[in-house]
Every structure is written in structure tokens, then in C-alpha cells.
Amino acid sequence: MAPHPLFVFGVARGGTNLIARVLAAHSAVAIGMDPLMPLFRFWRDAVMAEARAGLLRERPAGEPFQDFYFDADGPAMLAAMLAARTDIAIPPDRLAPLREALAARAALESPDLARHLVRVDGSDVAALIGAVLGAVAAEAREAGRGPLAWLGCKEVWTVDFLPALARAFPDARFVIVLRDPRAVLASLIAMAAGDPSQHAHGVSYLRHWRKLVALVALFQARPDLAPRLTVARFETMCHAAETEAGRLGAFLGLPFEAAMLHPGGENGWQGNSSFGAIGTGISPAAAEGWRRRIAPADHALAEFLCAPEMAAAGYEPDAVLPEPTDAVLRRMLDFHDDPGSWRSDSGDPFADLAWEALRHRLWRAPPSLPETGTLMARCFLNPDVLQQRAE
Fold first, then answer.
1. Which of 7, 44, 145, 258 is deepest in the core (most CB within 10 A)?
2. What is the CATH number of the domain that holds 249?
3. Cα of 22 vs its chain's centroid, Å
């Protein structure tokens, strides 16, 4: 029987590497780490080009992956992504540059996989994704791996492609990784302190985190998707690794293997925590290290931006701010002044701050107005997320 496709999604600094490597440590699973982003960007640009007639403004090719919040085109863009076609043709003159970009991206985490990606071929998006999965299989065979039940890729920022992938690959399964957004922000800041080239726009990270939660709630409410996806919490893996690894294995119809508790092997990957050495990557300390490292202003910023989705996802805020404090405003301006290489906000921190304050107002008591539905969609993407509460 041919291996089934497996896709792992989340946000950067959100624990996706750990979960993907735990899965890939199973003898029947092979996962490529982050090879697909250039193809996903090409795909997103093509989807936005097709949706142009329904948008108020044209989207520039190659822009960062969007979080869709507040933009007047946000609901239409999200709808277009969720309805994306995978039979979008890849022009012959784009194939070679895409191969090179896929290989370069994969080389950051999977250098052996990169050698196989320079030869992938495909006439459309679905075919090229299938070819990338084939490259993952080729790397596994080269490494002496035995028969595989699952071939996958781990990616960040691109969970909105999940429904399209589910349609294109009917036997695929999906793992969505969640981590406390305060830990995500603290990890980002700690990483940049050690390597300034890794500095990034913290506000955009947090907006993508809450997008992830909103879309998880949307997908879990769909009968065609809910049985095919599971949520893996970084904290759960760190605190109860054997139980959580066994649950993920069972989700894929696989028995637990002890190797899953040592995703780095004896001499392999040792984790990529920003909070210091964590052995093979599974440690309770890795889940809680952010509390000792995060500055009060960053703590407050994460809770102000993410409080509704934190409540829905089971990450209770320590203090829900009814309005932004001076410290929150200052941190938003700090990130605005030095955003790093990409951002997905409007670029106007004062306009975004006003929208964020409105989000809190709507969270507490949405008004009964004819256009409230559109307003809620612009502020929450999936307003039903406000009705979700983790058990």
C-alpha cells in the first residue's frame, strides 16, 4: 500500500519542529521540514490573482502570508484561500526557479532532502506537492528507512491551505501544533537576542497565532475535515511525552514506538529552543521557560492581542486588559519601527491599535447591527471561535 500524505502546520517558534520530529522518529513516518513555502507562495499568488475581481485592491505577488485581520478584503481573501484549487497550472518557465527555491528552503532544515528537490516535476500545484512527497520518500530510502505508512511535510504560516490539500489528497491527515502565544513571542525575542538577523515582527507572529486558533475551530466544526485532523499542544508533548506521542501515533493508526521519545536520536537533532539546551527536545522545562524570560510589556502585548483566542484554546490570560496600556502601545511601536524582514499588519500601528480595542469591545458584547457579521469576520476571521472553550 502506498504511503498516505501527512501535513503538519503551525506558526514559527510554535513547537512544530518538535512535533514533526517526534512523528518522523516513528519507523513508519517520514517528514520533510519546511520544503513547501515557495510553492505555497506561488499558489497563494495564483489564488489571489483569480480572486482579483472580488477584491477591493490588487494583491502584490510575493507579499508575506497574510493573517487577514481588519483588512476590508480580509474575509474575501480568506474565503478564496479556503476554496483554493490545486489544479492551478505551473508555467514551464516557473518550474526551474520553483525547484531551486524549494531546495534552498529545505536546505535550512533538511539538506539531504534538498538534493532530491532539484529534480521534482509537476504540471500543476497538486502534482508538484505529490512530487515533493516523493522526494521525502527518496530521502528516506537513501537513509535506509523501511516501509513507510506516512509521507509528510511540516510547514508554518500556511494552515489556510488545509482544506485545499484535504480535497486534493483524500487520504491525507493533518496535525496542527499549538503553543502558548506568550511562549511564541518570548522564544522569538530570545532567538533574536542571540542572532539579530532572526529579529521579526512580533505583532504579526501573534496575529498569525490567533488566525491558527480561529481556523482550527473552523476546521473542527466541518464534518469533512474534523476526523482527519488533530491538534498537538507543545506543552502536552513536553509534560507527557509518551502519552502524547502514543496519541499521535494512534491518530495515524500506528503503534507507539520508544524512538518517538528521542526525536534527535543519540547524536541527532538536539532541539532548537531559544531558552537554552533541552536535550533531545522533549522537556517540561521547554514548555515553561518563557515565564522566566518574557518581559512584562511583551507578556501584556501577547495577552492584549490574543486574549479571546487564548480563552478559546485553553491558554488563560493572566490579566485581560480592557484597553491597551502605555506599555502595550510602546511595544507595538517598537515592533513597527523595527519589524524585521516581513510583517502582515497594516503598517499603521495606530489604526491597528484602534481595531484591537474594537476587538475587545466586540468580544465582550457584540452589538446587534445589520453589518455586525462582516465586522466580526474582520476582527475574528471565524466569529464562532468566541464560542469555543477548551475542555
1. 7
2. 3.40.50.300
3. 17
